[in-house]
Write a structure and sequence with these properties.
Porin
Length: about 425
């Protein structure tokens, strides 16, 4: 009874299975098509990804290449970092303390002072191998004076040529004119009135200067419009001057000259070598100097030419510097008097000493100096002094010194003699 009932059930089951086979075959074919389509899409995606990766790699390479190149703000202009390499900034900072005791016709006077003597900022720009520019800003605080300067333009020049390869040069602008060497191993003006040649002969003017420099020989000529004119003359570019100096090294064992500088000195025995410099200057009107123009005022009866001769010798650790500066004619007694007549002022300066190597380089300098027919200018008739320059670190120098001044009987300030003690710290960068 049970088996008979099972046969119809099995028949129905087989019938259902065989009827489902065609449908299953159809589903398998569709599945295979879908799988093939997915495979094709995957291949397309892989190919596209490879193309994207190549494009990204190319863009990254271009970006890295551009990053390695300096950017130019304006087409045709040099990159900023190259301009920075052409600019050199330096300067000097000086601070000093001084004490002086002055014997006058009215008794003794003593005073002391602290002074932020000098702040100088220098900017040098090498625009091209044959073209450079220089600018100097200067602040000064003279010792024992209430006045102090602002930060003024002290120099501003453009120089063409004169670069070693080109011996000729042309300089235009505001500059210190090459009249005398004005050299000293002491702290100088405005901290103390040293050297006398600088006090009388320094000239800062707007000028045109032509120069020649080769093999130790230096020549320069300049024209400018000075602050002092002859009475009745108009304001013209009528002042001029010249400077000549020659510097060389001499190997006296072999009696041979050589160029100065470390590049050449190492080729010679320093025990048998001496370095020297000799020179001379001329100016058409000495009254145009910064020191004398204030004394004579804006006009003089006649232009008074001036001249200067100077020299320097350095042998091993010893050195000697000499300079003589003078007017070549006499001023009117109403301009610079000397007794009942006009003065023909002159100054001289001699410095000698030695360098000593111990903890740091030490320089010891001695001074002999003086003037003639310069009582109306307040210059000492004779001067003696000693100074120590001790290097504390590269670019930092401590100076300690003493000066004794003896004045003429008719000194404009009624002084007889002066004792001056001074100390200065100088930083050069």
């Amino acid at each position: 009874m049970t088996k008979g009932r099972a046969r119809p059930f099995l028949f129905v089951l087989f019938a259902l299975l065989f009827s489902a086979v065609p449908a299953l075959a159809t589903s398998t074919e569709e599945l295979e098509k879908e799988v093939k389509a997915l495979i094709q899409q995957n291949k397309a995606l892989v190919k596209r990804l490879q193309e994207v990766e190549k494009e990204l790699a190319r863009l990254k390479a271009e970006r890295d290449e551009e990053a390695g190149k300096p950017r130019q703000a304006v087409q045709g202009m040099e990159p900023a970092h190259q301009w920075i390499e052409k600019v050199h900034i330096g300067g000097i900072l000086e601070f000093g303390a001084a004490y002086q005791n002055v014997d006058t016709d009215e008794g003794n006077e003593d005073e002391s002072d602290l002074a932020m003597t000098t702040l100088e900022l220098d900017v040098d720009i090498s625009v091209a191998p044959w073209l450079k520019a220089q600018g100097v800003l200067l602040y000064e605080d003279p010792t024992f004076e209430d006045s102090e300067s602002s930060l003024d333009v002290d120099m501003a020049t453009i120089t063409l040529g004169n670069n070693g390869e080109m011996p000729w040069g042309l300089t235009l602008g505001k500059m210190y004119l090459p009249f005398g060497s004005l050299n000293t191993h002491f702290p100088d003006d405005p901290f103390i009135d040293v050297p006398l040649s600088l006090i009388m002969g320094e000239i800062n003017e707007k000028a045109v200067l032509v120069s020649y420099d080769r093999d130790g020989l230096s020549l320069s000529a300049y024209v400018f419009n000075g602050d002092v004119d002859e009475r009745g003359d108009n304001n013209h570019i009528s002042d001029y001057g010249f400077d000549f100096h020659f510097e060389r090294g001499l190997d006296f064992a072999n009696m041979r000259f050589y160029k100065r500088g470390s590049k050449y000195e190492h080729e010679h025995d320093p025990k048998t070598c001496v370095n020297f410099l000799v020179g001379s200057s001329f100016i058409s009107d000495l009254a145009d100097s910064d020191g004398l123009s204030d004394a004579v005022g804006g006009e003089i009866e006649d232009e008074i030419p001036g001249w200067d001769i100077y020299g320097h010798i350095h042998y091993r650790s010893l050195f000697l510097s000499v300079e003589y500066m003078s007017a070549l004619d006499s001023f009117s007694r109403y301009e610079i008097p000397d007794g009942d007549s006009g003065a023909s002022p002159s100054v001289w300066n001699i410095e000698f000493g030695f360098n000593y190597e111990w903890w740091k380089p030490l320089e010891v300098a001695f001074k002999l100096a003086g003037s003639s027919e310069a009582a109306a200018l307040g210059y000492p008739e004779t001067r003696y002094g000693i100074n120590f320059n001790q290097e504390l670190y590269e670019g930092i120098t401590l100076s300690l010194g003493y000066l004794y001044d003896d004045y003429e009987d008719d000194d404009i300030d009624g002084r007889n003699h002066r004792n001056l003690f001074f100390s200065q710290m100088a930083l050069e960068f």
